[in-house]
Amino acid sequence: GGSPTTAATGGYMGVEITTVTPDLRSQYGLVPTSGAVVLSVTSGSPASRAGLAAGDVIVAIDGQKISTADQVTQITKSHHPGDVITVTYARGSAQRTTSLTLGTAPS
Q1: Is the pLDDT at 52 greater than 70, yes or no?
Q2: Is the dihedral of CA 56, 61, 62, 64 positive or negative?
């Protein structure tokens, strides 16, 4: 048995992320001092369609500053599949903004 999981609720981006640390900054040559580093992007996922790639650093969503990977997870969980969020991310020294339509997590 077991209770149904609630992990799949909310919107799905399709990224594996981790919080920026000094080690990661030197390893990847990251510019932002805080944010959520994209470690991998699931092919065909909403994040992939929005243009996010491994090595990008998410620094804001809908204008809300992102300091940790947990914040990104909380924001996406508070939305629903089909919602559009504005993701601001750093790629190298350039800062970009993209609209991302959240999807449903694959079962």
Answers
A1: yes
A2: negative
